[in-house]
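chain below, 398 aa
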Amino acid sequence: MKKLAFLVLAAVMTACSTETTETTDSPKTNSEDSKTVVEVEKPEYPEDRKFNDFADYIAGIEGTEGSSLKGLESSSTWQNYKTAMDGVWKTTNEKLPTMKDWSSTEVNQGAGTLFYPFSGPDFLHADVFFPEHENIVMIALEPIGTFPNMVEKSEAEKDGIYLNGVRKSLNMILGKSFFRTIAMAADFKGEVDGNLPVLMQFMKRTNHEVMYQEAVAMNPDGTLTTDMSNNSDSTYVGNRYYFKREGSDVVRTLTYFAVNLQNMPYVSRGGLVAKGLDTRTDLVAYLEGIDMKSTYLKSASYLMHRPTFSIIRNIILDNSEFVLQDDSGIPIQYFDQNKWDLTFYGNYSFPISLFAERHQEDLKNVYLTGGDNVKSLPFGIGYQYRKGTSNLMKAVKK
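prediction:
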């Protein structure tokens, strides 16, 4: 049995939705059946309204009655931010129905766990393509950040700086469908110190209630705990969010870690050194224990084209049942077609000039000769984000 703590919780969630069971061992009477009705209690989840209040605020959506941040909404700072967010989301909201319709036909993976490496805080596309997956695991280099006290920031006249920082960090993902890691590293060195507000805005703007957010530590065996008392300097600490779609009782989780997925240590431009998967057996055990049904890869910097990312590439290929990716993900040569059924969408000729050396001639030939195995893609996504220039590949394990 997989050991991941939050998946155990999620399994209980799935199994224990309120239902009735009937026993009919006793003979029926003329007037009624002799039935024993057993009510199965729903599992309990942590919940604190302050997280949803903040999600409303940071999404530029007026909070409901009793919101702890209601008093800040009348300020010109927030009103201007709200107007800006409505404008930024306008084009995205026009595009989402097309993406959802395509996903319901071509992806349609139902329940399970989604693994989204090299994700940044991109909850938006994870939810569009995998709306029924109860658990999402996202890993990137961007820091998690801290949950802010917006009342204190307002009193210190720093709320405008914070909101502008959030707005700036959203420009690329909503305008071009991808994040730039270096740019976001700079964005997250001011009042906004990580991707927490971006994630929570995405949740709210996609019609979710944010129930709770908590820190989780990774044990040496790859399981997760909320007990921080045994942490060392090398312990990986992430964030776990509990959320549910408006109108639904299904509670979902998103777990995010800011860690290195390269085989060997990673040295950032700022001097940060992070160990690689060749020595982080805890992270490898965690990834192999999350029971990943699906993996999604988008704008992944062609990292898994490199031999230095072979461990994470093999973990995905060995453990996933379903992979949806653009050409920046895993090269087509690693998909053994005796094990995978492949379907291609959109168009592919060459990568953008920044990644020209990652061109896949075999993938280009598929698009030239694929016939019925190559289908249209009715939207733009990834580095080549304009409609008609993008590509996606669907891989289903046989």
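The mean pLDDT is 87. Residues 218 and 224 are 5 Å apart (CA to CA).
thats it, cya
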